Amino acid sequence: MLPLPTRRAVLAAGACLPILRFPEARAAAPADRVGAFTVTPLRDGLFPLEPSMIPGADSEAGRALLAQAGLPPSGPSPEPVNAFLIRRGAWHGLLDAGCGTVFGPGFDRVTAALAAEGLRPDQIETVWLTHLHADHAGGLLTGDGRARFAHAELVLQEREAAYWSDAGARSRAPSAMGLFFDTAQAVLAAYAGRVRRVSGTAELAPGVSFLPLPGHTPGHAGVLIEDGPERLLIWGDILHSRLLQVPHPDWTVIWDADPAEAIATRRRIFDRAASEGLAVTGMHLATRCRIERAGAGYELVSAAP
Ligand SMILES: [Zn+2]
Predict the structure, then answer these.
(1) Which of 43, 64, 210, 271 has a CA 20 to 30 Å removed from the CA of 102?
(2) What is the sign, positive or negative, of the torsion defined by CA atoms of 192, 177, 23, 57?
(3) Keyword Metal-binding, does the record have it (predicted)?
(4) Ligand 1 center to residue 268 CA distance, Å?
């Protein structure tokens, strides 16, 4: 496994983002309708993804994809970090919470995005988590480590909470993952007494259910929103780079806890979404898409409502 980038390297890369060429770099997409649900992406910031974070990109095929996109071989490509607000009438829930202050300036915009939707953090009653990585759970904490959502119940997969609480798992993980373990444990401690652990395809609310997608982390899960014939899968971190991992689903990202399982899961959900014509979006995708088979890989096509 490659070393994780330091915060300084991330910020330095961010300073030279080729911003304007990429739809990912623009403002968050508008809200989607899924039957009676409104699903609003909340843009926390932009993450400069370097090809070295996806080792498969260090190849002729990877360099060709980067060149076609107008990127130098070392990238970076700007990738969004999203949370989502899911509403139906007066009911609402938050899915993930962005980075908070964990990765320094440039992120922590979820609270402002919620304010633009007329909501304060203390009005959020439920936060669902796709997984406990810091770019999804860091925003659950204020800069001084308190629970940002004073009245929210936190809902996540049992396996996810167990993994990040496991001293053995931490000792086996690369040392650079220490920040991720620290953040996950701080979140679980700050929300102690109001963490609900569920297993499998748990219903989170009528029409909203978890879909386990393990591999990136043991309890990584997407959320499927259904109302009648309309469906949207928010697939969490099934991919970090649409440019690289859609045509090459076997290319893992260095943060995968179990790369082989992450590949198998990505292939399985790509295949299902293609077969079912399922609309998808994610924490590191700019817009709602559909996925189609293309040669040995896949391609994303716009599924704007
Ligand atoms: Zn992520």
Answers:
(1) 210
(2) negative
(3) yes
(4) 19
**β-bridge partners, 153:** 126
List pLDDT tens digits, range 24-41: 556 677 899 999 999 999
Report how far ligand 1's centroid is from the alpha carbon of 221 (Å). 12
112-129 per-position pLDDT tens digit: 999 999 999 999 999 999
Å from CA of 237 to ligand 1 middle: 5
CATH number of the domain encompassing residue 123 = 3.60.15.10
Q: How far apart are alpha carbons 220 and 223 in whole angstroms?
A: 10
Q: How far apart are CA 203 and CA 211, in angstroms?
A: 9
Separation of 44 CA from ligand 1 center, angstroms? 11
Q: Is residue 161 part of a domain?
A: yes
- Which residues neighbour 58 within 8 Å (Cβ) at sequence distance 6 or greater? 51, 52
230 alpha carbon to ligand 1 midpoint, in Å?
26
The residues, ordered by sequence, that sit 6+ positions from 103 with a Cβ below 8 Å of its Cβ are 7, 10, 134, 135, 138
Does 2 reside within a domain? no
79 contacts: CB under 8 Å, gap ≥ 6 = 24, 46, 47, 48, 49, 240, 241, 284
Q: How many domains does the chain have?
A: 1
The per-residue DSSP string of 216-233 comes to: SSTT-EEEEEEETTEEEE
| Res 4 pLDDT > 60 | no
Residue 1 lies in a domain: no
14 C-alpha to ligand 1 centroid (Å): 16
**CA 178–ligand 1 middle distance (angstroms):** 16
Measure 219 CA to ligand 1 centroid, in angstroms.
13
Tell how far the Cα of 42 is from the centroid of ligand 1, in angstroms: 14
H or E segment and range at residue 273: helix 259-276
